[in-house]
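Lecture notes, continued. The same structure-token format from the folding unit now serves as the input rather than the output. Read the line below as a description of shape only.
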């Protein structure tokens, strides 16, 4: 896997980043509401090897409000157009750490996480990477700051003709539609006798024409029931497939390398169930599979699907990112959903908790300088837990801890007044 490390070539290594050009420590950029910011504008030939970003005290809704796009060789239509968080493995705006070979998410302080992606992204003449902030406020939440790195190689020779270009596409079906032949009493329950011999009603991850290969999948499920939802098989129809497809699975957890019906989160090099919100399977669930050792080849077209429950008998919120390589030109992607249509299901008091989150953040920072070391540390511990609970979607737990931190801050104000 790492044998290239000791091969010395004529390639040269480079980085584009948010470093402050005046030499100060303000090594971030700001992206206003409705603004498009170009992160990288690079001449080729080359290969992007790693992309990183982080924020501090971010609003989790930024993960769906911000869009990352990538254009290769001055193409008019992007090869990547995905909500920022989903592209980096965040399901339904709930962050979890990921320890895989392709995506890693690592925890910092104050609700901060470091997001990394390692898919190689070759380009022949030119690469442009941009972020559009479609949200109502500055990207980055309380601090309004966005730090990033884009590491790449410049090549000493043109790309070969058999190189595929990197692509990524996001899709969402807010409530999956059950098949017409499923009676009401068979919906949203474990089903054994139902039949699906066409794949027509499956959730669609990707449906494209071209010459390429599938490289990765992020799947997010907001389960509206309180039982296991994942009896759905993956079905991948390649080139001239009708029925059966070239790839037919045996259940959702098998795709992502899990034992039967996982109840504990896990993250591995190639597979993971990194988000399991509740022990009874209700709410948000996230999973990934990297096909980097076993890419799925197609020559003319591919339709990548998965059942939502066996024979499509579950009504849930499904969203996904498909990652793949193909020769250009590629077809137009469907129009990306509007921001309001991308936001996941949230508690009714989300905005109230977000307001408490931001108010406590400012108070905690100011008052930590006006107290003794032990009191400051105690407040910081509770506050750090609260903001990470918030970023991970544990909103009510976060609110309780925020209230506790504010009470401690108020007591300190009273003591020193």
């Amino acid at each position: 896997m790492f044998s290239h490390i000791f091969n010395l070539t004529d390639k040269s290594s480079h980085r584009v980043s948010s470093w402050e050009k005046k030499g100060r420590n303000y090594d971030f950029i700001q992206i206003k509401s409705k603004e498009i910011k170009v992160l990288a504008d690079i001449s080729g030939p080359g290969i992007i090897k790693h992309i990183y970003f982080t924020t501090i005290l971010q609003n989790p809704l930024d993960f769906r409000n911000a869009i990352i796009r990538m254009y290769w060789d001055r193409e008019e239509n992007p090869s990547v157009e995905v909500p920022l968080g989903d592209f980096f493995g965040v399901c339904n705006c709930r962050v979890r750490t990921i320890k895989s070979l392709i995506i890693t998410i690592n925890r910092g302080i104050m609700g901060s996480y470091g997001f990394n992606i390692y898919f190689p992204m070759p380009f022949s003449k030119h690469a442009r990477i941009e972020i559009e902030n479609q949200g109502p406020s500055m990207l980055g939440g309380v601090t309004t700051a966005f730090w990033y790195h884009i590491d790449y190689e410049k090549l000493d020779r043109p790309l070969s003709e058999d190189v595929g270009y990197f692509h990524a596409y996001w899709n969402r079906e807010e409530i999956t539609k059950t098949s017409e032949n499923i009676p009401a009493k068979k919906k949203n329950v474990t089903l054994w006798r139902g039949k699906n011999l066409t794949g027509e009603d499956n959730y669609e991850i990707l449906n494209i024409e071209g010459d390429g290969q599938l490289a990765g999948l992020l799947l997010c499920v907001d389960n509206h029931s309180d039982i296991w939802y994942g009896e759905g098989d993956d079905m991948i129809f390649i080139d001239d497939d009708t029925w059966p497809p070239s790839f037919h699975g045996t259940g959702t957890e098998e795709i992502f390398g899990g034992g039967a019906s996982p109840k504990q989160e896990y993250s591995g090099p190639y597979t993971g169930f990194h988000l399991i919100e509740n022990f009874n399977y209700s709410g948000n669930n996230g999973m990934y599979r990297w096909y980097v050792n076993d890419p799925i080849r197609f020559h003319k077209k591919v339709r990548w699907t998965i059942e939502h429950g066996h024979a499509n008998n579950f009504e849930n919120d499904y969203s996904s990112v498909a990652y793949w390589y193909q020769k250009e030109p590629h077809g137009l992607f469907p129009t990306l959903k509007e921001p309001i249509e991308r936001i996941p299901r949230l508690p009714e008091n989300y905005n109230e908790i977000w307001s408490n989150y931001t108010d406590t953040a400012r108070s905690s920072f100011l008052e930590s300088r006006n107290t003794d070391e032990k009191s400051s540390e105690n407040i910081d511990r509770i506050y750090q837990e609260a903001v990470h609970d918030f970023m991970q979607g544990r909103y009510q737990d976060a609110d309780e801890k925020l209230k506790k931190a504010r009470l401690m801050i108020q007591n300190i104000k009273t003591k020193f007044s």
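Point for the exam: The chain has a mean pLDDT of 94.
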